[in-house]
Amino acid sequence: MNNNESMEMYLETIYILERDYNHAHGVEIAKRLGVSKPSVTKAMNLLKEKGLINKEHYGTITLTKEGREISKKIYNNHKLISMFLQKSLNLDFDEASENACRIEHIISDKMLNAIKQYLDLPKCR
Q: Which of 4, 85, 86, 119 has its CA 20 to 30 A from that of 93?
């Protein structure tokens, strides 16, 4: 997993946790991603330096406006790709979601628009 893909996975996980619980904690992020707490701490420090998250020293983690925009796009791409894989290839939800997780980091806007057209959804901007 490259650095950009890794950061996207962290952002998407924070987005989901924030959506469900209004914030995230390092322990929960580590658990969901199957990584160590020190790995989460290192990633959170980098995301904070980039202005994508707010992080209290021993507290909650929330997305900044920019972080939320990026993570929402990643999350929506994941859902779109997963839906496409389920509909076009008849994959079950788990298999489609697992593969969407890999694909979402490398897919082009042109391909996303083609998927949206296939699914009869509005195009990306």
A: 4
The CA distance from 63 to 69, in Å, is 9
φ and ψ at residue 36, rounded to 5 degrees = -80, 155
Q: What's the pLDDT tens digit per position in 76-91?
A: 999 999 999 999 999 9
pTM (2 d.p.): 0.86
**Would you kindly state where each structural domain of the chain is located, as residue ranges?**
3-68, 73-118
| DSSP secondary structure code for residue 63 in this structure | E
**Is CATH 1.10.60 the right assignment for the domain spanning 73-118?**
yes
